[in-house]
Design a protein that fits this description.
- The chain has one domain (3-483).
- Helix content is 85%, strand content 0%.
- It has helices at 3-41, 44-58, 68-74, 81-113, 117-135, 137-145, 149-172, 178-198, 209-261, 263-278, 284-319, 330-355, 359-384, 386-398, 401-411, 415-437, 443-465, 467-483.
- The protein is globular.
- It starts with a helix and ends with a helix.
């Protein structure tokens, strides 16, 4: 790869990261506002029901791809028509088989659990969403190969906005949990129509043995990691839901929503850096710098945002009438917030391992997390209820420091040094807000005061001690403005 190509990748990557970060702020703002309104209109059990069914159906996604999409993105050479059609054919066969199995399993469970029309229509809508997602795979891959994340992000915004808009509207008019099903149908259909209009490809069913073989070589190990992740995250969530019930699982779903909002920055960077790092495999110095920049700016935004959400959450519950039903979610929210901060650094590192082809290393970590999850989650949840799941989340999260150590050796990066500025600034922000809270103002003043204090302390610290990084960030934005 020549220097000019490296420069093009750098500029396109920076541009896409900044664009996706800003777009994801919009997406997450809509998502949080919509979820917030739904949690006012709906009860904890209804929120928990949708979360349980959503977790169940999302498991199907792990069986519909077997890593072929990631293999197409990671592939160094140009992808051909036979690669696309082979991937599409295999994927649709797997989708069809998965749907048959899941409908059979659901029919058995629905009888034993006495499920009614609410559960059925949520289940059907999410299955439709699963099929639509599988049909979007190839157009999405083509866009990611071109690093055209503007269009992908725009479609995400349309889907997310339409989902919460229709869910809130129908919930307001008394449709209850059916609101989720209606909104899911609309979101999936809109996204499918738009992506095929903007990124059409000649749909066809064919099977080329050599193409399949080359894709399976990377795809199957990659998807094996996804299967482990599914067992670690999705299946463990269903286990927790089975132990604590819908109402308590609704509490956990509420507790996770806020902290996960900050991960929109990490998602934006990872979306871009996976195909970017894959193209920088032969340039370790440039890869190292890119990874350090990614980690720094993830920490710069994720750490204070996660801490800020945790700091004002109790005041929001106390301020809004009839919202005290979510008060039990505050303590688990703190545990999830710490875990999100750790994961925001760990996940990009495993993403980098995958991008440079070190799939087996990621597999070892995934196995470690799966074992820890299935050890601590059942034991602690049975003993402590929904709080046990929060305890287990943090225990598993702390094991991620092993990944940091290995990444330091492989990429020769200074992780602690890279994220030290955002970490120190966030702790100063937390201490200042906790002191302000002791003044015992009402909830509204607490919310406003904490936001002002957080922004001031965090901004002042970086102005004094991280000026070079902030100047670099501003220069990138300025360059992008000049090129438009």
């Amino acid at each position: 790869m020549e220097e000019i190509n490296l420069q093009e990748i750098k500029e396109k990557t920076t541009k896409n990261v900044l664009f996706l970060s800003l777009r994801n702020i919009g997406i997450q703002s809509i998502s949080v506002l919509g979820f917030f309104l739904l949690t006012i209109l709906l009860g904890r059990g209804e929120v928990g029901l949708f979360a349980v069914v959503a977790e169940s159906v999302s498991i199907l996604g792990y069986f519909s791809d077997i890593g072929l999409a990631a293999a197409l993105i990671q592939k160094k050479d140009e992808i051909k028509k036979e690669h696309l059609q082979t991937t599409f054919t295999i994927q649709q066969i797997l989708v069809f088989i998965s749907l048959i199995i899941v409908f059979f399993v659901y029919s058995k469970i629905s009888v034993s659990k006495a499920y009614g029309p609410k559960e059925f229509w949520i289940f059907v809508s999410l299955c439709f969403s699963f099929v639509a997602a599988s049909l979007k795979t190839i157009p999405s891959v083509l866009l990611e190969r071109k690093l055209n994340f503007k269009l992908i992000s725009t479609i995400d915004i349309i889907e997310n906005t339409s989902f919460y808009f229709f869910a809130v509207i129908f919930a307001f008019f008394g449709f209850g949990v059916y609101s989720y099903a209606i909104a899911t149908f609309i979101r999936s259909l809109l996204g499918l129509i738009i992506i095929y209009k903007k990124s059409y490809w000649p749909i066809g069913f064919s099977y080329h043995k050599e193409s399949a073989k080359s894709l399976f070589k990377y795809g199957i190990p990659f998807q094996f990691n996804s299967f482990i992740a599914m067992a670690k995250d999705r299946l463990s969530s269903l286990l927790v839901a089975g132990i604590v019930g819908r109402d308590a699982f609704g509490i956990l779903s509420w507790a996770q929503k806020g902290p996960r909002m900050s991960l929109s920055f990490m998602d934006a960077i990872m979306k871009v850096t996976f195909p970017t790092f894959a193209r920088l495999q032969d340039h370790p110095d440039f890869l190292k710098k890119s990874l350090e920049k990614s980690l720094y700016f993830i920490a710069l935004f994720v750490f204070p945002m996660t801490a800020g959400i945790a700091l004002i959450a109790p005041d929001i519950i106390n301020f809004i009438p009839k919202y005290t039903k979510w008060a039990p979610a505050i303590l688990p929210l703190y545990f999830y917030a710490v875990n999100v901060a750790i994961a925001s650094i760990t996940t990009p590192l495993t993403n980098a391992f995958n991008a440079i082809g070190k799939i087996t290393l990621t597999t070892k970590f995934m196995l470690m997390w799966a074992i820890l999850t299935w050890t601590f989650f059942p034991i602690l949840t049975i003993k402590f209820g929904y709080m046990g799941a929060a305890y287990a989340t943090l225990i598993v999260g702390f094991s991620s420091f092993i990944v940091w150590f290995v990444a330091k050796k492989i990429f020769n990066i200074q992780i602690i040094k890279t994220i030290s500025g955002p970490t120190i600034a966030t702790f100063l922000m937390i201490i200042s807000c906790l002191f302000f809270q002791t003044l015992n103002f009402n909830s509204l003043i607490n919310i406003i005061g904490k936001i002002i204090i957080s922004v001031s302390i965090y901004g002042l610290y970086h102005f004094l001690f991280s000026k070079n990084e902030i100047i670099w960030f501003w220069q990138q934005i300025s360059c992008l403005k000049q090129k438009k």
